Amino acid sequence: MRWFIILLALLIVTPVVAQEVSIEVVKRAAVVYPDSAKVKGIEGTVMVQATIGTNGLVKVVSVTKSDNKILNEAAMDAVLKWQFKPIPKEYNITIPIRFKLSS
């Protein structure tokens, strides 16, 4: 009986989770490696948060984490050019952009 009351309490206070939105990339723009980063041998990852509109176009981007700020602009510029399959409502997604020099 005790476990039933706990389970019931969990069901009452647990919020209903909205249906997940399926995000599908239709067009992925190439990332241009900044020359200044190449010369200095800078590599790293930039986490770009993007707001995707219902038409599948990226509306707004921002950097949430970066290994080196010299890479930020190139990462945001690329993600702004991405296109996604249209979705029923705006959605925020975080996209990792990796910069790695070839050996």
Q: Can you summarize this structure?
A:
The chain is an alpha+beta fold.
What does this structure look like?
The protein is an alpha+beta fold and 103 residues long. It has a single domain (21-99), classed as TonB (TolA/TonB C-terminal domain, 2-Layer Sandwich). Helices cover 26% and strands 31% of the residues. The chain has 3 helices and 5 strands. Strands 3-2-5 form a 3-stranded antiparallel beta sheet, with helices on one face. Strand 2 (44-52) and strand 3 form a beta hairpin. The chain is elongated and about 45 Å long. The termini are far apart. Mean pLDDT is 84; it is low at 1-18.
Topology:
Layout: H1 2-13, E1 25-27, H2 35-40, E2 44-52, E3 58-66, H3 72-80, E4 83-84, E5 91-99
Antiparallel strand pairs: 1-4, 2-3, 2-5
> How is the CATH topology named?
TolA/TonB C-terminal domain
What would CATH call the homologous superfamily?
A: TonB
Estimate nothing, just give the exact number of structural domains. 1
Strand content: 25-35%
Please compute the radius of gyration using only Cα atoms: 20 Å
Order of helices and strands: HEHEEHEE
- Give the second-level CATH assignment, the architecture: 2-Layer Sandwich
Helix and strand content put the structural class at alpha+beta
Shape: elongated
Low-pLDDT stretches: 1-18
Widest sheet: strand ordering: 3-2-5
Descriptive tags:
disordered N terminus; 3 helices; two-stranded antiparallel ribbon; TolA/TonB C-terminal domain; alpha+beta; elongated; 103 residues
